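Supplementary Methods S3. Complex input for the adenosine monophosphate-bound model.
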Amino acid sequence: MITVSSKDFLQIPIEDYIISADKVAHVQLGNNAEHALLVLTKTGYSSIPVLDVKYRLQGLISTQQITDEILGLEHIEYERLPSLKVDDIMKTDLPVIHIKEKFQKGLDLLVNNPYVCVVDDERTFLGILTRRVILKQMKKYLYQTQESEV
Ligand code: AMP
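Predicted complex, serialized as C-alpha cells:
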C-alpha cells in the first residue's frame, strides 16, 4: 500500500476538499435580515457568507447576530427584520483561506472555526472548507497509516 508521510499530507492543496460556491447557501449585501433569517432557518446552518454583486466575500451572518439585534427589553422585535440590512449586522472580521493554501493552514484555522471561506486574490468567494471534510480526510489518513504499520 502507498502511504503518505504526515509532512506530505499536511502539504496537500485544500483546493480538492472545498465545498464549491455554487453549493453554499449565501445572502447578498443589501438583503434584509428577514431574508437572511429565512435562508438560515431553511438550510439549518448557523451562519452563512454575505457576498457582493461581484461574488466577493464581505462577511458572515448568523442567526445569533440577527436575534441579538432584534432583542428588545420585553420581547423579540420581529417587526424590525424587514428594515434591517445584513450589511449592518454581519461580522466582517473573519478568517479566510486562499484557494492555493495547503491542508496544514486549513487545519490550523478549523481548530477554532467550524468552517472557513475560501477566496482568490480578488477575494472572490470560491467556497468553504469545513471541519467535517478535514476530519474525514484525517480519519482516512490515520486509518491508512495504522494499516500500513500492522
Ligand atoms: P459541517 O462541518 O458540514 O457541519 O459544516 C460546518 C458549518 O459550515 C455549518 O454549520 C455551516 O455554517 C457551514 N456550511 C456547511 N455547508 C454549507 C453549505 N452548503 N452552505 C452554507 N454553509 C455551509
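The helical segments are 6-10, 33-43, 63-69, 86-89, 103-110, 131-149. The chain has one domain: 7-149.
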